[in-house]
Give the backbone structure.
Amino acid sequence: MPYPKGHKMKVRNKIVESAAQAFRANGIHNVSVPFIMKGAGLTHGGFYSHFDNKEQLVAEACRYAVSDTLALLQEAADQEKQDPKINVVIDYYLSTHHRDQTEIGCIIPALSVEIAHSSEEIRQIFTQELERMITFVSNLAEMDLSKGSALFSSMVGSLVLARSVNDPELSDCLLSAGKQHAKALVNT
């Protein structure tokens, strides 16, 4: 009996979602295809009926993860009653929840270092997705792309450092200082 229409796309989406979650939490090189497939509730053997290779999956997972983050940030901004709406995005992005929930967080701080050493194809996709994030932040903050790039870079850097240290007080301080600095950039 054949699968229902759209079954293959649903399975593919489950794999991409599993990969995005795994890559955000563990990086690209620390995650195997069998691990991703298990996370999707599937066997390893079916991977190649959906993807040519792991690189293709990394590219799709980056797109998916950025879209997921943008939807989350847009929802937070839409719920904000006061301006500037960017402040609620800054507060969420530099929150302890976002810091601690790497598997559902922004993929940009999670993979930037690894992406720098990846193939040109993956770097191109990552570049496009980074540009989407910068455009979103710039538009929400009502600033040009140069200032928006500085703002988002500051937010990413603060999050990376807060995730990197093993001192909870220092980590919280880095998030707090990052929020303060990011909001100051909006007001200049």
About this structure: The mean pLDDT is 92.
